[in-house]
Amino acid sequence: MLKNYLLVALRTLWKHKVFTAINIAGLAIGISASLVIYLLVQYDFSFDKFHKEGDRIHRVVSKFTSPDGEEYKNSGVPVPMGNAVRTEMAGLDVVAPFYTWDGSGKVTIPTAKEGKPVTYKKQEGIIFADPGYFILLPYEWVAGSPVTALQQPYQVVLTTANAALYFPGIQPVELIGREIYFDDTIRTSITGIVKDIAQNTDFTFKTFISWSTLEKGNLSNGNAETWNNTTSSSQLFVKLAAGTTVAKAEKDIRNLYNKYHKRDKDDNTKTAHLLQPLRDIHFNTDYGNFDQRTAHKPTLYGLLAIGAFLLLLGAINFINLATAQASQRAKEIGIRKTLGGQKIQLILQFLSETFLVTLLATALSVLITPLLLKIFADFIPKELHFSLISHPGILLFLLVLLIVVSLLAGFYPALVLAGYKPVLVLKNQAFSNTGQTRNAWLRKTLTVSQFVIAQVFIMATVLVSKQIHYAINKDMGFRKDAIVYFRTNFYDTVRSNKQVLLNKIAAMPGVAMVSLANNPPSGNSVWSSTFTYKDGKKDIQTDVQIKHADSNYIRLYQLRLLAGRNITQSDTATQLIINETFAHTLGFQQPQDAIGKTIGWSNKQLPIVGVVADFHQRSLHESIKPLAIANATDRALTINILLQPKTNAGANWSATIKQMEKVWKALYPEEEFEYRFFDEQIAKFYESEKQVSTLLTWATGLTIFISCLGLLGLVMYTTAFRVKEIGVRKVLGATVTQLVTLLSKDFMLLVILAFFIATPLAWLAMHQWLNNFAYRTGVSIWVFGLSAVMMILIALITVGLQTIRAALANPVNSLRSE
Length: 818
What we know:
- The chain folds into 5 domains: 1-47 and 306-433, no CATH class; 55-96 and 228-294, no CATH class; 103-220, no CATH class; 440-474 and 682-818, no CATH class; 483-681, no CATH class.
- It contains 24 helices and 24 strands.
- By secondary structure, it is an alpha+beta fold.
- 47% of the residues lie in helices and 18% in strands.
- Strands 1, 2, 3, 4, 5, 6, 7, 8, 9, 10, 11, 12 and 13 form a 13-stranded mixed sheet that branches.
């Protein structure tokens, strides 16, 4: 029986080759997109799922609320909190503090090759950890013991990947006792080797120096004993004991913090320490995850929706074409029923045809998927690969998809076809008094649904591109072109070096101006502190972002002074320039009113000498915050350079940057020269939006393609079904234009109807997305108009090619048999 079903299915599909190809192409595209989306979503949701009792593992994070209600979140805690929690808190099975290395480190192997030291620069994944780290995380030990490996100062544990890198060809057990130097100052001895974690995890560290090394060497930038500073480098993980609630643990940590934290009398900032679940770390951008890629759950859910829509479009094509072909198979069904065929047998026959089409489409999608992964390689994690052998879950996913799509696309057409009455179909009355040939309401509904989805995608793509263009080209309140910047060596003990570097660069002919500051006007790195202003009635406390800069800073970045003057040069802070927002927060109606007033900060009373126009300190996602520019260059490490105008070939910029590198190497021969163009750094604020735009563009193209495939199939069927009508009309004098209009009218009305349905849906979705930006473009009418024009033109081309061909056909051929 099954063999008979498949043979009949193959013959039927071969007989209708064009429609079969359309169905296979539509379903293959939908299944390929769904497979790529499944791989990405499954990859992100698999992070750190392998931990035993992972629901009891949490990270302690910090949330600060300023007196004016602004919230600031930090993934770190005060450095001494880890030891205090371990010794004074009950209800915890594991306490694991660790401290991440600031930036990349330099690793030296003193006797690695023929007695000569070998140095590895820019080494990532270095942390200071205590034995609790290896109790919390399931590393497999190759050499050494987790109990003793990190007990003493200046001990280090390596993963097998780093062990093979630093000591190629040496067995792990032979490495115990070997020495490694970090940044030429920290001399450690290897006490253990562990295997790298094979599963997907955010814990990608590869070198573990004992926690006591951090304490003994005072390597935490002076934070080892203070509870007043919080840095994201200081991480604290805990595993709750059975029966301990999150609320109780947070309360105990709060009490512990209040016990040791010495609050400044002018500091009214509220501090809370919360427990962040392990499963949340990979998805929470508020706290981040150790400078690794974070996933965005709404984006993942949006991807799932796109995959579902593309699959739905392919299924709609199948339903449309199968029901459109119903009249051609009516006699076949009538004869089958007359010969004793049961309804269930007919349903199984038609479902087998659908299954065969879906199976072919699935096989084709397996070939297409690697190509799609290459196309989207820019924003698909490099660890994500398509392999049926190493990912058996893919086979299960494809099997489920095969069954679901077969039922979704084939069940309704099978019911329709199997439901014909043999008496009527054999008398050519299968559609008598049903109106199916005239209204075809189901096909019209499904076609409208396809074009609603397509037009929503078009509108979303146009608006996302519009917002990105707006964000990148908006005046952010400062100059951003022709500026490069780089940070001087943080570990440099010779204070005069940065001034020597500054002076030599300023003397270069390709440089227009230089400035020393802690950061450019806008960036991801933010310094903030509490400022206090006494207005005679009350104390106004405000959390303020701080820029340390010299007097060239305002001129180089062309910040606009609204009142007062520029700051003067100084090593320590003696003057402040504030922005408009800060002036208004302090209660000044006009910028001039703030000049001469003093503000308390860091145990000093500093005068306000100027007010600058507001500029964006971060991306347009965030509102402008109160800001102060202090004339303190002792803490400024970033050199900002305004280049001379670029020549046609840009050779002058390249030559100037090479000169800078030469000067840098003269002072820091062992360090790499790394610079950034300021405008490129600003553009990186919107990388995720660009990725969304790319994804939407592809989704829109695929949606339009699948929809047009279905439309083309319907037009081909309609013109074939009405071929005699077209012949009669031509004989009676109808022109080609009239025939094309007649055949196209119904389809174009469906596209227009889809536009009116899609417009409010798209507006709601786009309005919600734009709410992610504090500053955003408007939802212009032309966005909807452009979508309508594009869709109508595409539909006209699809319909027109086939209808013109039908209208130009010789009527003799169609009427010969009459």
